[in-house]
Specification:
The chain is an alpha/beta fold and 553 residues long. The chain contains 20 helices and 25 strands.
Length: 553
């Protein structure tokens, strides 16, 4: 099963580069099936980093909830609507199954068939005596189920509705009944009884089956050929022959054409609610084009397989990809505070250290494993460190970050200080994004003292663009808080030149005046020396909210 390495929602450069780099290390060491994934498209700055590194962006996956296609049995055993009872029964017996999907000759799904439906085809009730004698099939199919042989055959594969008549009565009574049915639809079963065979041949029936291993006399064979009557020699007695002929019936009449199917991409949780109410036992699973890809029974949903996730740059389910709570989280690699909600059924590897960048931890894993990164992966990790530590100038920077960045330098094909300058000049969110995109680009939600809020952060060179767009950003923040039902939303705009920030609030909670930073204007504060959302701003907000009652949103 594929192991998905995920950064947090609204991923930044560190989250995406950490996912790519750690997946690369896992592929080369312990998990060859590891795949880097992300919950959204990279921003302009991250795109620049990946382009310079020559690595592909992670696979975008917005929802990892297990789907029907992950629990169904692929390569399902099927039947074709033109097949006969014995063929399908033998197949079901061989695979020990009680139901199969039925497909057309072109492969389209036409219905479902159960073993009970098949038995009804053969064992009709006495009240349906006419139907009991009817067999829709070809004479070749009859020969096959009898393991018999043709003495003479006409149109062997022509499929038609035949009435079975057993010549076990007097010749007079048989002849009388013989003329009650159209000759071309009569199939006569008889032992070595010329008094039965002769009137049947004279009536030019569709076929005659001679039981007990007997065969027609030379004279009767001449008559059969003259009247175009198919003659089949059966090795079985009359009773067995008659029963086997019934099993040559087409399954068409027994197909359930009103049935419930499941889309392959339907979440298992949703499918479970549907199938629990249904009397149907087996459910065909269809892809987006309506093609059958497998089958699913109710028991398959009891303990379905779960996707395996490795979380990087976050450890809170509220920041993880949608559906993470229904997955097996096998590892966490992070440098943030511990959040709530993360539970596992089995022990897992959990690395959480107070460094400036998750890519620092990934680089250290490379070193510990003795694996040299490629130039592209090395630049990818360096980009994450440069981004999250503002080129080692952020107060979150540690000696471990400095050491790992120095270790990566020789592996990179470019000079990192010059590259960092280009990196920060590229992709200004205020220059290229709509206001609603700006406030969502690197947005994380938190809960402190029962109050839910979000903090977004962007890095810019100077504040000129911010002043030009301040009002529309404030409107976008207020809308973000309303849509997500948050107490408030904040935007931290950081100047990477002066190492200071401006904090824009959708609105200020009670007692917000205790922030101890200059209030520039309504909803706006100047935070000199504050560049870290994690280490500086979040603890400050948590302290301010400590005595603020949560309002009802």
């Amino acid at each position: 099963m594929t192991t998905l390495v995920f950064g947090h929602r609204n991923p930044d450069t560190d989250a995406i580069c950490a996912a790519i780099s750690y997946a690369d290390l896992l592929q080369r060491t312990t998990r060859p099936d590891a795949v880097a994934a992300c919950c959204g498209a990279p921003n302009k700055r991250t795109e620049f980093a990946l382009r310079c590194a020559g690595v592909n962006a992670p696979r975008i996956i917005m929802d990892v909830r297990p789907e029907v296609q992950h629990a169904c049995r692929l390569n399902a055993v099927t039947a074709t609507e033109t097949e006969i009872f014995s063929e399908v029964y033998e197949r079901m017996k061989h695979f020990n199954i009680g139901a199969v999907p039925v497909v057309s000759e072109s492969g389209g799904l036409v219905g479902m068939l159960t073993l009970l439906d098949l038995l009804k085809v053969v064992f009709e009730e006495d009240s349906q005596s006419v139907q009991t004698r009817q067999v829709v099939t070809s004479v070749n199919k009859i020969r096959e189920v009898l393991n018999g042989e043709f003495q003479h055959v006409v149109n062997p594969d022509e499929r038609s509705e035949l009435n079975v008549m057993v010549g076990a009565m007097s010749a007079e009574g048989f002849t009388k009944r013989l003329h009650q049915f159209p000759a071309e639809r009569l199939l006569v079963v008889s032992g070595d009884r010329p008094t039965i065979q002769l009137p049947a041949l004279e009536h030019a029936v569709r076929a005659i089956v001679v039981t007990g291993g007997y065969q027609l006399s030379v004279g009767l064979m001449h008559l059969a050929k003259a009247n175009h009557v198919t003659v089949i020699k059966s090795p079985h007695d009359t009773a067995t022959t008659t029963m086997r002929i019934k099993s040559a019936r087409s399954i068409d009449a027994a197909i359930q054409r009103e049935f419930l199917s499941l889309p392959a991409k339907q979440p298992i949780a949703d499918a479970r609610q549907v199938v629990e109410r249904a009397r149907q036992k087996l459910f065909p699973v269809l892809d987006d084009s309506g093609k059958l890809i497998g089958v699913l029974s109710k028991s398959d949903l009891i303990n379905p397989p779960k996707p395996q996730l490795i979380l990087v740059d976050h450890n809170e389910l509220g920041q993880a990809v949608f559906g993470a709570e229904e997955s097996d989280i096998v590892e966490v690699l992070d440098h943030h505070r511990l959040g709530g909600g993360l539970k596992t059924s089995q022990p897992m590897r959990f690395i959480n250290e107070p460094v400036g960048s998750t890519c620092t931890l990934v680089a250290r894993q490379f070193r510990a494993a003795g694996v040299a990164p490629s130039s592209g992966i090395a630049l990818c990790m360096a980009s994450g460190i440069i981004s999250d530590t503002l080129l080692l100038r952020s107060p979150t920077t540690t000696d471990v970050d400095r050491d790992c960045l120095e270790w990566l330098r020789p592996f990179c094909d470019c000079e990192l200080d010059s590259y960092a300058k280009d990196f920060f000049e590229v992709g200004s969110a205020l220059r290229s994004c709509k206001p609603e995109e700006v406030v969502r680009e690197d947005c994380k939600e938190f809960v402190e003292h029962g109050i839910r809020f979000s903090i977004s952060q962007i890095e810019e060179i100077g504040f000129e663009l911010f002043w030009n767009r301040r009002e529309e950003l404030l409107t976008a923040l207020a809308e973000l808080a309303r849509q997500r039902r948050l107490e408030f939303s904040a935007l931290l705009v950081t100047d990477i030149v002066t190492n200071g920030s401006l904090l824009l609030m959708s609105h200020e909670p009670n007692d917000w005046e205790e922030i101890n930073f200059p209030r520039v204007d309504s909803h706006l504060y100047q935070l000199d020396g504050v560049v870290s959302r994690k280490k500086q701003l979040l603890p400050l907000i948590a302290k301010l909210l400590e005595n603020v009652p949560a309002s009802i949103v």
